Amino acid sequence: PPILLWFRKDLRLDDNGALSQACESGRPVVCVYIREPKQDGIGPLGGAQEWWLHHSLDALAAALADKGNRLILRSGEAAKVLSGLAKETQAEALFYNRHYERDAADKDIVGALKSSGLEIKRFRGQLLHDPETMKTGSGGAYRVYSPFWRALEKDGEPRDPVSAPSKIAAPGSFPKSEALKDWSLLPTKPDWATEFGRIWQPGEAGAHKKLKRFLKKPIQTYKSDRDHPGLEDATSLLSPHLAFGEISPARIWHETKGLEATNDVIHFRKELVWREFSYHLLVEFPKLATDNWNDKFDAFPWHFSKAQFSAWTKGMTGYPIVDAGMRQLWRHGYMHNRVRMITASFLIKDLMIDWRKGEEWFKDTLVDADPASNASNWQWVAGSGADASPFFRVFNPILQGEKFDPDGDYVCRFVPELRKLPKKYIHRPFEAPKEVLERAGIKLGETYPKPIVNHGEARDKALAAYADVTGRS
Ligand code: FAD
């Protein structure tokens, strides 16, 4: 009898525990991806990730076909779909990889399926280590990154990845599949994803290409270059592939082992471990995306202005580095890490808009949106998180721009209306003399917005609100 293999956020054949074990058993494998309705801990995916999912499923289906198998698509509640498929195919076992943010939902599904007599096996998910296996000396979860990293560096060498199976035995006949195009995952009118395909190749092959490119050169200067958004391709761009499980973190880690352990290589591993740390926090605190880790922030006087929020989402705040970041996000479904910090700080501290609004917007627009990394990073910037940047560290969008994008390359790429402005003013067009603006063809307030807030005043206001909240506790 066949084994049902339930694909979720592990859309790959390489280093896929559930798949390799299913193949080793010698039994036929029925591969299924289920589009589930919204439930606790389950989706829905944002628009940008729906685009990605479409292409990733397409790639997975082709990879399975190459191995003599097929991807079956079904919609509905997972427990119902799986028990129905088990009956149809006479499968007696279900294999899947753990999906950490939906542990609670999975428990219910497994409970419902057990009564149908299916043998159920769960394998490690998209992490180097299961959170339960990494605890502090006193037995609790790590809440601070540095000791977490040290523990992992000392004796947390991840296991070796397992290669893709050479063949995946097919059942005698395949159950029916829904058609991917009927899932309508791609945007139509307007098609805001026109540029995505130029940058991204969803799927396992795309992930390995990105890794290969990165290991060949950019990793050698990663530590210093990673903070400069004007340098294209200075980072790995693996985040969406990791979010969909098209490549495993153990595979990435393993591939870096062939390189000399320079500071750059170690720094890259440290970033992978930030991702890991975020997941360990999420498992410890499943409400990471909705509740302040530090409940002192529950009393923070957030103020929602629809007009200001809209200006932020559209990249029309009048601060060039913020606007470039928000426009990159819209056009590419991605934003450089340094600029994510600047734009998030701007929303939270300059506009005093609740970090959760920003987290939601990123979730809808990022191709790499990830329940752990997105929430923990927003809480990091807000100061409400576990190992967070203090609230009083307010990013100055002008100085950050001048420091990390000194020639304005990044700004000019995404805010073309400022291209003719002399470098001196590229991050502060509102300080440029009238004749300089005229020569650059800029009419502030018309061709490019005036700043929607005064950064200095906004900063003072935010700090006063923070002092008020912390003073009260
Ligand atoms: P690289 O620099 O090549 O790093 C390699 C990998 O390490 C990344 O792919 C990622 O998996 C991990 N990583 C790097 N930085 C971080 C970090 N700060 N936290 C956790 N993991 C990290 N990352 C996401 O994957 N999904 C998100 O939804 C997300 N939301 C964010 C929101 C905010 C407000 C901020 C400040 C950061 C967010 N990040 C998120 C983290 C980071 O910006 C991206 O992981 C990184 O920019 C991805 O580009 P890369 O793959 O080229 O990274």
From TrEMBL:
Keyword Flavoprotein: yes
Site (Electron transfer via tryptophanyl radical): 302, 355, 378
Record GO terms (molecular function): deoxyribodipyrimidine photo-lyase activity; DNA binding; FAD binding
Pfam families: DNA_photolyase (PF00875), FAD_binding_7 (PF03441)
Stated family: Belongs to the DNA photolyase family.
Residues holding FAD: 222, 235-239, 268, 368-370
EC number of the protein: 4.1.99.3
Key words of the record: Chromophore, FAD, Flavoprotein, Lyase
Coiled-coil portions: none
Record's protein name: Deoxyribodipyrimidine photo-lyase
Lineage of the organism: Bacteria, Pseudomonadati, Pseudomonadota, Alphaproteobacteria, Hyphomicrobiales
Species the sequence originates in: Rhizobium rhizoryzae
Superkingdom as given in the UniProt entry: Bacteria
GO annotation terms (biological process): photoreactive repair; response to light stimulus
Catalytic reaction(s) noted: cyclobutadipyrimidine (in DNA) = 2 pyrimidine residues (in DNA)
Cofactor detail note: Binds 1 FAD per subunit.
Every Photolyase/cryptochrome alpha/beta domain range: 1-128
Cofactor: FAD; (6R)-5,10-methylene-5,6,7,8-tetrahydrofolate
